[in-house]
Design brief:
Blueprint: H1 5-13, H2 20-32, H3 37-50, H4 54-65, E1 81-85, H5 93-103, E2 108-112, H6 122-126, H7 139-149, E3 151-155, H8 162-174, H9 180-193, E4 198-205, H10 214-230, E5 234-241, E6 249-250, H11 252-263, H12 269-279, H13 284-290, H14 293-303, H15 314-318, E7 322-327, E8 332-337, H16 339-349, E9 365-368, E10 375-376, E11 381-387, H17 392-402, E12 403-406, E13 416-420
Parallel strand pairs: 1-4, 2-3, 4-5
Antiparallel strand pairs: 5-13, 6-9, 7-11, 8-10, 8-12, 9-11
Length: about 425
Amino acid sequence: MTSSIHAFLERKRDGGRHDDAEIEAFVRGVVAGRVTRPQAAAWLAFVLVRGLDDVETTALTRAMTASGLRLSWEGLSGPFVDKHSTGGVGDKVSLVLAPLWAELGRRVPMVSGRGLGHTGGTLDKLEAIPGFRCTDLEPAHLRRILGETGCFIHGQTARLAPADRILYALRNETCTVPSIPLVTASILSKKLAEGISDLVLDVKVGSGAFMPDLASARALAVSLVRVGREAGLRTRAILTDMDQPLGRAVGNGLEVLEAVEALRGGGPPDLSACTIALAGDERAASLLRSGLVLERFRRMVAAQGGDPEALDDPRRLLGAVDVVEVRAERSGVLERCDALGIAQAAFALGAGRSRAADRIHRGVGVVLDRKRGDPVAAGDVLARIHHAGRALDEAIAHVRAACVVGDAPPPPRPLVLEVVEPPPGSASDAH
């Protein structure tokens, strides 16, 4: 596309639209290096300002999917399902939902990512389990696990949607991440490359979310559902609260322990409720309460090289950490439990990374004793900070600022805010 790249860029700069062939040629050029990084970065900036319509976004999604390997599960019975979360604080739903779906008879080839900034990553949580492999398994190995266990959770390989890896890195460098069409294509191209038929999206809303307000979250959810439908995926989206952390644990090993509690049939009610809502099956609640799903998770852990016995030993998941309690200075009601503030505390302790190459500590983080609306007496424990000697004072300050004790109960805020589904008879319903 060397001779036409300038015309391509000028068209979007001036508010025009691209046809499918142009977008396909652009994506192939990005992967092959015929489109330079400055040229690709310029196009991303033009898209941020000018936008893409649904037809253009669908074409971009398909082209990015086709830029690399597309996994195939021929010979295995479906349906093949996955979920994607737009990122939150304490969001360990994938660890519970994948084995739950498998127990319900689905196949779950779940491709997940790492955390960056204050948002935790599923792969980082799983790597708190000794031996767990989630970045280096070949497609044939993943196929065997999917056939025998019903689910796996693995990272994006270099061969899956390579155009997305290139463009995502450029979006980070050029501050063009917030573009809804670019977010939509990035998410869906990876999911289509997994070879799935059904996708559920957990679009978080609140202080700890990528989309802090309901209107922007709704716009993203609608885009994802519409484009997913046009690309042939049965797609639905659920908007869920992220003004406070999901569950009580924030931090990699701590979240694995809490996920295991949920898999046993216990754990925080909001974690179970979110998982059940995303599962979309009337049998999910009773099955999760039964504790039977834990055995499926153990099988997945063993199949991916992890030690399932470590799930029963907090010391092996957390390593060497100390615990400091943060106590309430007055009596009242917890008016606010700010998700972003708690995430900042965990990040300061070493639970997150600011660059992809940064190392994280699997055992540090925050466990909340109180959540929004809970009564509090002076001296009660609000949170327990698990630390390894790094930035403890900073973490305590973040927790104190996040946990606001007042006199009046806060207005209720439901966990599930909205559900966005394609209209009956849409393309994805017939897929």
